[in-house]
């Protein structure tokens, strides 16, 4: 089960804290009238919502609905973070992008395919492009378990920042805590999608992780004179195999992706600076100006000089 949330709107946090539930106390019975997110740190929690019981362990995340009754089902020891919040644009997934089966249940496999397509589109997009409507549709799981220790550590750190920001009571502290919580939800959404794709064998854990590492590195080091041998040594993987993994997941080879990053940055420099073509070429990783111009024209349909003139005219109109 998933929710869709407009990521352009910052959540409004009511409460954010860390709680230790000890016997003989049990979790409250209530209809909260606001969303509640739980992140379990230690122990276990039996929590029922509308008759469905969740047995929560460390690494678990759950999002409770504002209009559904929930209660603790057993007395247990548990340490967890909780966030009470409101948001004007969040609802259970009944989105037009999804299909429903004959019994009105959402086809999650199709949803995962479409979410993977959205991720691939984002990873391949030109950073200067205006985002489309779908790119703001944040997909949040009702429940998920964070299995990767690195991801779990990052999420704990992020939610600690939420709690800290919400308690300092300096000016704009509610805005800051809401923004921090939005960052937490984005990271959670990314992690849950990756785990779901691995579970459904749509990606392989090791291969996809390696592709993401290379993709992130290319965005950082696009100015450098990168070669297949260099990438093979840096990532300790046969370059031909890496290229196959990259093409399978990104629909482009490693150097096609690198080329697109360089051209995207070149377009930004041509639009926002007065740098000469030779300087732009060097700045984005092309050692030869004529080769840069050839690649740029093949990608955009115009020469770098003509592109700069066209953008200048467009900005003045």
UniProtKB/TrEMBL annotation:
Keywords: DNA-binding, Transcription, Transcription regulation
Gene3D superfamilies named among the record's database cross-references: Homeodomain-like
Domain HTH araC/xylS-type: 212-310
Keyword Cell division attributed: no
GO MF term list: DNA-binding transcription factor activity; sequence-specific DNA binding
Pfam families xrefs: AraC_binding (PF02311), HTH_18 (PF12833)
UniProt entry tagged with the keyword Ion transport: no
Name of this chain's protein: AraC family transcriptional regulator
Organism: Anthropogastromicrobium aceti
